[in-house]
Amino acid sequence: MGRLRRFFRESARAFLPVNPTAGKLRTLLFLLSIFIFWTTIAQMQTIPTSGLVRFQSEDRFITTILRDLAVRYFHPITLGITAAPVLIVFISLRLVSISLADLARTDTPNIKHYLTRCAFGRRPMQTAIKPELTDSPKTMDTLTQLGGPASLTIAPGMMIIIQSGISRRYLLLQGNDTGDTTITLEHKQLLTAVIPVKDLQFSHQHDSIRSLYQFTIMYKNTSDGSLQKNVKMQPLSACDVQFLMSVVQSRKSLGLLIDTIIETFLSQQASIEPQVPHEERAASSQREKQPLKTHDNYTQTVKHFLPKRQGFSRPRSHKRYAPSMTNPPACDAGKDFDNVFSENTLEATLLRELQSFYNLKHINISLLVKDKSK
Amino acid sequence: MSKKKPQSGSRAWVVIILTIGVCLSPLVLTTGSLQRALLISLFSMGMVASIGFWLFFFPFDFKDNSHFISLPAVFCRLLRQNYDGKLQIKNGVFWRDYFSIQEKPHIPALMVDRNSVAVITNTRSSRIVLHPGNHLVERGAQIVHVFNTSPQYFQYGPGTSAHPVVELERANSNLRRVHTLKRESANTRCQTRDGVVLIPVFMIHYRMHSVHSNRQTSARLKAFSALLEKEQTTGNMGKRIEALIGKMITGQFRRMIETMEMANWSQGTLINRDMHAFLQSQISSPTPNKAIEKAICDLYTIRTRIQEIWVD
Prior knowledge:
The complex is a heterodimer of chains A (374) and B (312).
Chain A: H1 2-15, H2 20-44, H3 61-73, H4 76-104, H5 108-120, E1 125-129, H6 137-146, E2 150-154, E3 158-164, E4 170-174, E5 181-185, E6 189-196, H7 207-210, E7 213-214, E8 217-220, E9 226-228, E10 231-236, H8 238-249, H9 251-271, H10 278-288, H11 296-305, H12 322-326, H13 337-358, E11 364-367, E12 370-371
Parallel strand pairs in A: 1-2
Antiparallel strand pairs in A: 2-5, 3-4, 3-6, 4-10, 7-12, 8-11, 9-10
Chain B: H1 8-29, H2 33-57, H3 67-80, E1 88-89, H4 97-100, E2 109-112, E3 116-121, E4 127-130, E5 133-136, E6 142-148, E7 152-156, H5 164-170, H6 175-188, E8 190-191, E9 197-208, H7 215-230, E10 235-236, H8 238-258, H9 268-284, H10 291-299, E11 300-311
Parallel strand pairs in B: 1-2, 6-10
Antiparallel strand pairs in B: 2-5, 3-4, 3-6, 7-9, 8-9, 9-11
Helix pairs in contact in B: 1-2, 7-10, 8-9
């Protein structure tokens, strides 16, 4: 069984690759085999009694041979049997496309075109991915349900997610910012989603929160992405794809989740003990600048062994970490300290909560919090 | 006048008859019996080979090459029956009648979309999780549960903007509305120690952990499916999961409320804060009492918020 499997796998790899060269070679091979079949059938005709071409009966040698050949090759039986394999190939194509139309969620002609494109290396499907999607739904159906081979032109400001049909891994592709970028969607690679970059910029519009904050979610490329032929490529996990799809398809869901997180955060903030005023914090930082206390017993020991170093004592080491814990975080000169503190915490809370809820690993979200009350 | 489109089944039959005609044509065309036998076998082999040739290019998700053996059976079934979109699971929803039919029809192949995952049982009574993609289902296997993996949200409790008791009085003539309000209010109705009745409305967000990549989650999903089947629950699990999560959260809320007195609560925000903290800690705690609740906690990430609390 193992050998049979290996044989199937190896033969499929050797004879059934999907590319224009292989397709043309397959067409040539198909025509050649039909020709061989035709000649074989013609030669197998033993007693040709009648044919399409009729010669007058003469006794010349060459005429006899020509007549014999013509009668053999253009005999209705020979032509019928030769046409049968061609019919078989195209009937089976129709059979396969009819039966699989339900499974692929497209119509029969779509599958037929797709299969002939794969088999005979016809010109790949060409599609432009633009902000205003002008392509027919049929084309998009083929690309999303059946996949490549296809040539995609990505307009600036557009991103696409493709999925490998074999490894089931997702890849996010982003075109050049200046002009259109053309990429090739290979066989068994499906187009999962088309995402306009501006759709990822999210503005939450709840009445109670709108007066205080405005949020923007932006997508950033992470470090593990690569650049090939002006196309930024980045592997994505299934969770990342689900998050991106939920942002694009249903903004309401994400909006409500953000609303929940913010309300929980605000209620927790209200319950926390009042923060230490800025003056007190400044005073505490002044306190930390005073000289550190020293160990007196260590002074006695040093005096005994090093008589020249009188009055030396080692400072208490645990005090060294105290200033970094009590110092206030750096803030801009023109901004109120408390405001910055709460904004940073809210941003961090939102990011943490969203990442934990959607199980995100490879996507960075930057939340720009703007105070509208100013 | 609209032109009626021919059914795919009837078209398939025309093509099948044509195929048989082509394969049997050597019987008419040739004379010698040996030649006839040779040509018929050649044509039949050609038919099988060319169907295999075309099927190779179709993006099936072949996990195991043994599927090739069952492929002719699948192919014949696909041809014979007109499924009309019943072979796909989209957004966690499968053909509803399938679960109510006693004699389950054999589903030869199944397409699971990106937002769904299905659990099937085969003849050896073992459970298999079908991930997104095209799958060939072996003979005798049955689809037990279908789950939605995308992030979802729902409101649990009476869905009214006015007080449910006032709304109930208003909707006296509309029996359907009365029934819905009574049922929704009873779902989340709870009482404090000093006898005050509270009807909270929860907004719950939930999502399944990544079943596509994590083997452990797939195992949990199988265990959860077994638990649900014990309770004789099968089918599309979207609404059922929402009811279970809502029930679980209401139970936790009820446990908290029963130990408290309304007289001690001075500010609404304070109540809200305490409840938020309590509910979130309860959901994230690893040992809920019931096995089904534990399975839900293991399988789903849940965020909840109390949207309203109606005091009766």
